Amino acid sequence: MATAAVSGLVNVLESYRGRDRVIRTLCYSCQLLGGVMSNKSEMEHNWGKSLLIVSSQLSHCRMVLRLFDDLAMLAYSVNYGLGKKEKDSLIRWISIISNISDQLYYPCEHIAWAADSGVIHAKSEMWWTASTALWGISLMLGIVKSLRSLIMLRRYKGKHSQFLFESL
């Protein structure tokens, strides 16, 4: 049983998405525990501070790994295009705007990272703000798109349920 768990973890860590999910989970867990523990006794405060440092490093790791996501995002956006295969025009437009937001997010984050790292001479605050705003827009559009999909599924289910009852 333990070897199956280790084997499963190895399989997850071998893929980019799996590794990102593990790092993200560890990052947020360390951040949560570190925040809670830093308000406790001296010993727990020190552990909390250490967990917050680990969280910060894991977050930085994820950001550096995102430096390589540009081409994948570009390929996804080009493949989606104007969403001609999408049945719902609202979902199509939300997806297009979301893809644009995501496409702009990466260069903004890269410029902010390069400025913070001393690779380029620029102030990073504006670029971090822009990348955070674009990320937020993408998240909000994702929520709206999911809600729209749920509403459409509910309508579809309602029509088919009604049809079943009528045919009985």
Structure, explained:
The chain is mostly helical. It has six helices and no strands. Helix 2 (16-37) runs antiparallel to helix 3, helix 4 (70-80) packs antiparallel against helix 5 and helix 5 runs antiparallel to helix 6. The N and C termini lie far apart (49 Å). It has two domains: 1-66; 69-168. One of its GO terms (cellular component) is peroxisomal membrane. It comes from Xenopus laevis (African clawed frog). Keywords: Membrane, Peroxisome. InterPro entries: PEX11 (IPR008733), PEX11C_met (IPR026510).
List keywords for this structure.
single chain, 168 residues, mainly alpha
**Percent of residues in β-strands:** under 5%
- How many discrete structural domains? 2
Can you count the helices?
6
Rg from Cα: 22 Å
- Principal-axis shape equals globular
Distance, first to last CA:
49 Å
Helix content: over 70%
**Structural class of the secondary elements?**
mainly alpha
Low-confidence stretches: none
Q: Major sheet: size, sense and barrel closure? A: none
Average pLDDT works out at 88
Order of helices and strands: HHHHHH
Q: State the total count of DSSP E strands.
A: 0
Keywords: Membrane, Peroxisome
InterPro entries: PEX11 (IPR008733), PEX11C_met (IPR026510)
Main location: membrane
Subcellular location: Peroxisome membrane
